[in-house]
Write a structure and sequence with these properties.
four-stranded antiparallel beta sheet; single chain; Dipeptide-binding Protein, domain 1; 3 domains; Dipeptide-binding Protein, domain 3; alpha+beta; about 25% helix; disordered N terminus; D-Maltodextrin-Binding Protein, domain 2
C-alpha cells in the first residue's frame, strides 16, 4: 500500500481518571483494550453529546503582528480536560485531541478525512506480501529541545511502546520488529499482514519520542510538533506556544494558543459571546442557534466524525432479544429522521457499524427503513402486540440526558414494546451493562474510528457472535490492498447490520461555533484530530 491508503449532558464526567477509577471488576475475557477504549468512548461522549464549553482566556491581542494583523493569541474552548499529559499511559481522547499533531508527531498522520498522510515519514512503501513497511523520513528533523530526530528515535519509540505495554500496544500485536536501517529509514516487519497498520500508526502507537530526553511525562511534553506545552493546569487549561525550532512545513501561524476546558453550558456560551474564547467545539445544535442567527459575528458549522450512537441489544442466549424478529422489529420501528431532527438536524443516518470516514463504509440505511407495519408483523410473529406488550428495559448513562430514551419509548410503544427507560450513573452502567451484561438494551456513543473488531468479539457486552463476520473481518485485516480490505470489511458490516444485533441511531456530527475572524480551525474530526498550526484570528 502506498501513502495514499490511506445531546445533552446533565452531569458529564470531565476527566479520564475519574471515569477509569469508577470501573469495577472489568471482565478479563477478551482484550483489555476494549475497556480502555470504551471508557475513552464514554468520556468522549460527554464531549460529543454535551454542549460546548470553554471559557476564560485572553481576548484577542491588540499587539498582533503588523505584517499579517493576526492576533498573537487565540483562545479555544473544548469540552474534555485531560488529567495529565502522559499520553503513553493515560486513557481518553482528550490527550490525543490536543497533543497529537500539535506537540507530539507520529511517523504518519491522519488528515481531516481520516486518511493516512505523511508526517515524520515523507513517504513509505509496503512489500507485496504485506509484511514489510519501509518509511523514508524527512531530513533535518529536531525535537523542540534541539535534539536530533531520526530513525533511531522512531524505532526506539515503537519498540518501547510494545515492550512496556503502553497505551495502544495491543494494536501492534502483529509487529515482529522495528529497526533503523539508517538515520533516514525505519523498517517495520510484521508477523502477519495487517491492513490497519498505517492508520494505527497515525495515533498513539506511531508517536515518536526523544529517547534521550528526561522530563515529567505527566506535566511536560517534549515533542517535535509546531507547538510546545508552555503551561498545563490540570482539568482547566493548556497553553501552547509556537515551537521556534519546528523543522516542518506546518509552522504555527499564531504564537500562543490557549485551550480552556469548562463543563458548564451557560459559561461556555457566554464565553463566546463575551469574546473570552473565539472557538467552541463542540456545541449542541440547539445552543448554537443564537450564533447561527448572528452570522455577521459568528460561523457555525457541523463537521464529520466517527461517532456512532449505538442502541445495543443483548444478543446472548436466553436474552429477550435473542429472538432476531424482535431485534428486527425494533429497527423497523425507529424513526431515525425524527430523532435526528429533534437534535437540530446535523447528524446523519447510519445503517450499520462502519461510519462514512472509515474503510469499508457502505450506505446500509435501506436495510431497515422506518416501517411500523413490518415491525408490528414481526412482533406478532414473536407473540407480542399492544394488548400483550413485551417488557424491555433501556439502560444508559446519564451523560446522554433523557430525551433519546423518551423518544425511543414513544416510538416502540405502537409495535407492542413497553420500554422502561433506566438512566443511571456511568459507574452503574459500566458495572451492570458493560461488565456483567445484565441488560436488555443499552445506548452508547462509540466514537472510536476503525473499531469494527468489537463485532467479532463474543465476550464484548453485545454478546454478538457470527463466525462469518469474524472470518470476513480477519480476511480484511490480512488483505494486502485497500480494495480487498474495504470489500471484506463492507461485507462483514452488511452481515452485522442484517443480523440486527443493534440499531445505529445516527452518526453524530460535531457542531463548532467560531467568532468571525477565526480561520484555519478544523471542523471535521476535531474531537480526535485537532491540528492548530493553521489557526489564526483577526478581529
Amino acid at each position: 500500500m502506498s501513502q495514499d491508503n490511506g445531546a445533552h449532558v446533565e452531569d458529564g464526567a470531565t476527566t479520564d481518571a475519574s471515569l477509569a477509577s469508577r470501573a469495577k471488576n472489568p471482565k478479563k475475557s477478551g482484550p483489555k483494550w476494549w475497556l480502555i477504549s470504551l471508557i475513552a468512548v464514554i468520556v468522549a461522549v460527554a464531549v460529543v453529546i454535551g454542549v460546548t464549553l470553554a471559557f476564560g482566556g485572553k481576548k484577542d491581542d491588540k499587539s498582533a503582528s503588523s505584517s499579517n494583523q493576526y492576533a498573537d493569541t487565540v483562545t479555544i474552548g473544548l469540552k474534555l480536560a485531560p488529567t495529565n499529559l502522559d499520553i503513553r499511559n493515560t486513557a481518553g481522547s482528550a490527550l490525543d485531541q490536543i497533543l497529537i499533531g500539535n506537540v507530539y508527531e507520529g511517523i504518519v498522520a491522519r488528515d481531516s478525512k481520516n486518511q493516512v498522510a505523511p508526517a515524520i515519514a515523507s513517504s513509505w512503501e509496503t512489500s507485496k506480501d504485506g509484511l514489510t513497511y519501509t518509511f523514508h523520513l524527512n531530513k533535518n528533523m529536531t525535537f523542540f529541545n534541539g535534539d536530533k530526530l531520526d530513525a533511531e528515535d522512531v524505532a526506539w519509540s515503537i519498540n518501547e511502546l510494545i515492550a512496556k505495554g503502553y497505551h495502544d500496544a495491543d494494536a501492534l500485536a502483529a509487529v515482529s520488529k522495528v529497526e533503523a536501517k539508517d538515520a533516514d529509514t525505519a523498517v517495520i516487519t510484521l508477523k502477519t499482514p495487517n491492513s490497519n497498520l498505517l492508520w494505527t500508526l497515525t495515533g498513539r502507537a506511531g508517536l515518536v519520542f526523544d529517547k534521550d530526553a528526561k522530563y515529567d511525562l505527566k506535566t511536560q511534553a517534549v515533542g517535535s510538533g509546531p507547538y510546545t506545552v508552555a503551561k498545563f493546569v490540570e482539568n482547566s487549561s493548556i497553553t501552547l506556544k509556537a515551537n521556534e525550532k519546528y523543522w516542518g512545513k506546518n509552522k504555527a501561524k499564531t504564537p500562543t494558543v490557549v485551550v480552556k476546558y469548562l463543563a458548564d453550558d451557560n459559561a461556555a456560551v457566554n464565553a463566546l459571546k463575551s469574546g473570552d474564547v473565539q472557538v467552541l467545539a463542540p456545541i449542541t445544535e440547539n445552543l448554537a442557534e443564537p450564533f447561527k442567527s448572528d452570522s455577521a459575528k459568528y460561523t457555525v458549522k457541523a463537521g464529520n466524525g466517527t461517532d456512532k450512537f449505538v442502541l445495543g441489544f443483548n444478543n446472548a442466549s436466553g436474552s429477550k432479544l435473542a429472538d432476531k424478529r424482535i431485534r428486527q422489529a425494533i429497527r423497523y420501528a425507529i424513526n431515525h429522521k425524527e430523532l435526528i431532527a429533534s437534535r437540530g438536524g446535523a447528524d446523519k443516518a447510519l445503517g450499520g457499524p462502519i461510519p462514512s470516514l472509515d474503510p469499508g463504509y457502505e450506505d446500509l440505511t435501506n436495510l431497515y427503513p422506518y416501517d411500523q407495519n413490518k415491525a408490528k408483523s414481526l412482533m406478532a410473529e414473536a407473540g407480542y402486540s399492544t394488548d400483550k406488550p413485551l417488557q424491555l428495559t433501556l439502560t444508559y448513562a446519564n451523560i446522554y440526558g433523557t430525551e433519546l430514551g423518551d423518544q425511543l419509548r414513544s416510538q416502540l410503544k405502537p409495535i407492542g414494546i413497553d420500554l422502561k427507560v433506566n438512566v443511571v450513573e456511568f459507574s452503574t452502567w459500566l458495572q451492570d451493562v458493560y461488565t456483567n451484561h445484565t441488560f436488555d438494551i443499552s445506548l452508547v456513543d462509540h466514537n472510536e474510528s476503525h473499531d469494527f473488531a468489537s463485532w467479532t468479539d463474543p465476550t464484548y457486552y453485545f454478546g454478538y457472535d457470527n463466525k462469518n463476520v469474524t472470518k470476513l473481518y480477519n480476511e480484511g485485516v490480512a488483505a494486502t490492498s485497500d480494495k480487498e480490505r474495504d470489500a471484506k470489511f463492507a461485507a462483514a458490516a452488511k452481515l452485522v447490520s442484517e443480523d440486527a444485533p443493534a440499531d445505529w441511531l445516527f452518526n453524530y456530527r460535531i457542531t463548532t461555533a467560531t467568532a468571525k475572524g477565526v480561520e484555519g480551525f478544523p471542523f471535521d474530526l476535531n474531537q480526535t484530530v485537532l491540528p492548530l498550526y493553521n489557526v489564526t484570528y483577526t478581529k
